Amino acid sequence: MTISAFIAVTNCQGILAQFQFRFYRRFRFRFHLRNYSRNSAATATRRCDGVMDDPQLFIHSIREQCKLGFCSVDIPVSIFHRLNCLRPRPGIIVFNQLFTAMSKIKPHPPLSTVVTFSNQLELSGLRPNCHSVGILANCFCRLGRVDFAFSLLGKRLKLGYPPDIVIINTLLNGLIASDKLHMAIQLLNKVVKLGIQPTLVTYGAMFKGLCRIGDNAAALDLLRNMERKTPFKPDVVIYSTLIDSLCKDRLLPQALSLFKEMKAKDILPDVVTYNTLIRGLCSLRRWDDSKDLFAEMLDSNIAPDVDTYNTLIGMYCKEGNVDEARGILELMTKRGVHPNVITYNALLDGYCMRGQMAKAENVRDIMVKDGIVPDVVTFNSLINGYCKSKQVDKARVMFKEMKDRGVAPDVFTCNSLLDGLLKNAKIDKDISLRNRDGE
Hints:
By secondary structure, this protein is mainly α. It is about 70% helix and about 0% strand. Helix 10 (about 165-175) packs parallel to helix 12 (about 200-210), helix 14 (about 235-250) packs antiparallel against helix 15 and helix 17 (about 285-300) runs antiparallel to helix 18. It is globular, with a radius of gyration of 29 Å. Mean pLDDT is about 85; it is low at about 1-50. Keywords: Repeat. Pfam families: PPR, PPR_2. Belongs to the PPR family. P subfamily.
């Protein structure tokens, strides 16, 4: 397949306009270098005059570090400058490994820095390869610039690399993340016609996109087509994605049917699958079914996580069985799962709704001792509980503590406190009137 043939076929509703390489060249990479350390770059440059005695050992150590990953951007930025001043300069593969590791830094990968560094290398004469283009396309998609990612496909073609499913998957994910599912479907249809075979990753992206917009019918059709027309079989991720979408639309019978189907096909459900169904059953107040599913989960040796326990604790509290919820908390800690703020808030609110404020205070004390910082939900539950228990003075104390801790009150906080104060004032007035009448 020639480049012109590919471009001619993929010219669909404006997508090709983004393929043009000249558009990519006009982009001057004006992204800011977020978290860029000027000091580390300057230090690295100063060291370049007497760079390490064994460059090959240095490069090997960098490759090993890239496999382990980085915690911050300063170190890879310094490494880039040191690599760039080596003579002879390392090949593009080493830089690709560094850029890949940089794009995985959490929670805020320096994607724009990767783009800028890549451009610097190309301008200095280091020719990119297909992997380099893929890394850049991924960065652009994650930065929300799918148009620039498409222009890189045109660049890839100019470099003599035919399109493959890896970069197509990147573009599909970018389109889906940008809420352009119709363009993703068009692109997938085009590449299939060109003989590029989708992978399980491709189908996973499409399922995610369809379920994201709530098109369950199209997602189920895709599932059946995938089973009939492709060599790939749906995995647990695809089934879990579909089940989650059905549960969110309260289509529990269909979700349970898919759950039964996947088990019949020896596709083992995981903790995500069970969590989704337990949450769906609880949302429809099918308490007994959710308990049975939790028991099945344990029998299948699927370890529940914090989300599983939080859902169950919330369920028991909503049905007024707070003591049972407390038992779930004990089971949770016994199995080595650490409670979080959601866990404690659910249990605390359960006690508050029943007017058991002493037990609610006890939960808060345990929560603080456990190193969990109370949030606005914690204080709202306590303030509301005190107000309903006619302990407005304690509610006011809690409100003051809330502000002292730097937790901003919300509308619910103010409404609860105002309602409590008004009712308390009415009670005081009634008592005053009765006392006066008695005189």
